[in-house]
Structures are given as structure tokens and as C-alpha cells.
């Protein structure tokens, strides 16, 4: 059985159940006129007939969170391809976090199958198989940062490397320094989370998510708790990571957000409602926000 400490560490890195936030009112802003950027890259994620039904302990009724959804070539909503920046939007309770948790193997499907990096995940997959898959291939970033409060920024970022056990102490030290430098926190390495701003904590969380050089970053409302300056900074950092501009290889990103203004960062926006994909939109070119324009927009549209 896991110790309290192990559970704390595991929850910090891989998260818990969803957080609830306000529904978004507006439909997608994406430009649907041009071809997607990632149309020719390799598929890394396919979903077939995926359903999730939550049964409430001691109660008759159940909640259908996902209804037999597909992301495969033969359907309207194709697979997620290497290098894509996907945004998932939709009203509160529509199933966004459930979908992200299924892709991240944090939660198991009731029915159906996920094909991730050529391996298959279903309700029959073992915990040890899934936790190895997560540690080696997937980075997680959450709205509430989920940093371990008693560890410094350096120690938080080193944690996944220590758990994986592939690098020696010196290699880990160098990689942590490099990652924290890339996210602009070279002067904050020895700070505890409580000594950092929200935006800084989220950048530590991003550095930690990148620790084992994952192919896939899963981001659940990563800017939900940030002010507008930090929102733009974090999103620009994520776009650089996605496009391989931080010196690492390009990293596929799947991000849940309620903020329609962030759609400009995505190659493709999937709109989820009532446990199903409603529609998708493609951006011709993923583009960073200009902070001054974003703030001016927020002033007019609070
Ligand atoms: N652990 C759980 N047990 C029971 N029901 C759950 C659980 N997690 C989610 N649900 C239900 O599944 C449905 C989808 O929830 P989910 O959190 O995926 O929606 P969401 O689109 O991410 O919402 P939000 O934007 O508010 O975070 C909701 O009806 C929710 O109440």
C-alpha cells in the first residue's frame, strides 16, 4: 500500500480529480479558413469508442462523462499528431478534464481504447504499466501548480528524474539548472513554492513536467489562477516548448482552457459538450498573444 508521502508525490506530479470553473460563453475564435499546420506529422494519439461513466458510491444514478468518443482517421475528428498544440474547450461539466485524465492515464475508461505512442490503454491496463508510461512519456501541468510545498523549486524539478532513475546526480543537477533557466527562474532555484509568485510557481511546474523529456504535455487550465501578465508569459513559454524553441525537441501539447482568447496558440481546437466532440476548428498559424492587446481586449470585455 502507498504511504502518505508517496500519494502526496504522485498527486503532485499526476494530479487529482478535476477542478471546476466557470463555463465559457463564446464559441471558437480560430481561423478555420486555412489548412492545419500538423496535417502531415505522425499520429501519436488515437481514441476509439471511449466512454467514461462515474458510479456514485451508495447511489443508484451514474454520470456519463464521456459518450463513446473517437479521435481516429476514419471520423470527423482525426488523431492527435506529433507537434500539434490542441486546445480543448467547452462548457463546465462537458467532460474536458475527464478526457484529459483518460489521455494521461490518470483515470481508466469504462469502455473503449486509447492508443498512445503505439501502445494500447484500456480498462484492463495495469497500474504499474500506466505509471511507467506516465513517468517516461507524459508531463502534467495543473491550474493549482501542485508543487510540493516543502521542496525548493530545484527539488521539485529534480523529483521526476529521481523517480525515473535514469540519470546520475550530476546529470540531474545540470538538467534541473538548464530547465529552470529555460523557464526564466535561474535566480529562484532555492526558493520554496510559498516564496514564489503564481506565475513563477507555474513555470516551476512546467519545468518539472519537462524533467523526463516527455513527448506529450497535458495542461489542465494552466493559466486559470494567473493574472494576465503571467497568462501571456506562461502561454508564450508553452508555445516555445511546443515548437521546440527552448532547445528541446518539439513537444505535443493538449490543453484544457475556458479562455477563448488563448485559441490563437493552438493548431486545433476541439469543442467538448455533454461528453462528446461538438466541432473542431483549425488555426492557420499558431501565434502568441501581444500582452498590450490582450489587456486592452480584457478592459473592453471584462
Ligand atoms: N470523480 C468523479 N465522480 C463523479 N462524477 C464526476 C467525477 N469527475 C467528473 N465527474 C462528472 O463528469 C462530468 C464531466 O466532468 P469534467 O470535470 O470532465 O467536466 P469539465 O468539462 O472538465 O468541467 P469544468 O470545465 O467545470 O472543469 C460532470 O458531470 C462531472 O460532475
UniProtKB/TrEMBL annotation:
Any one cellular-component term (Gene Ontology): plasma membrane
Q: Name one GO molecular function term.
A: transmembrane transporter activity
Q: Which UniProt keywords apply?
A: ATP-binding, Nucleotide-binding, Transport
Q: Entry's SMART domains?
A: AAA (SM00382)
InterPro entries (UniProt xref): AAA+_ATPase, ABC_transporter-like_ATP-bd, ABC_transporter-like_CS, ABC_transpr_LolD-like, MacB-like_ATP-bd, P-loop_NTPase
Locate the ABC transporter domain: which residues?
Answer: 45-299
Checking Pfam families in the record gives: ABC_tran
* Identification of the protein by name: ABC transporter domain-containing protein
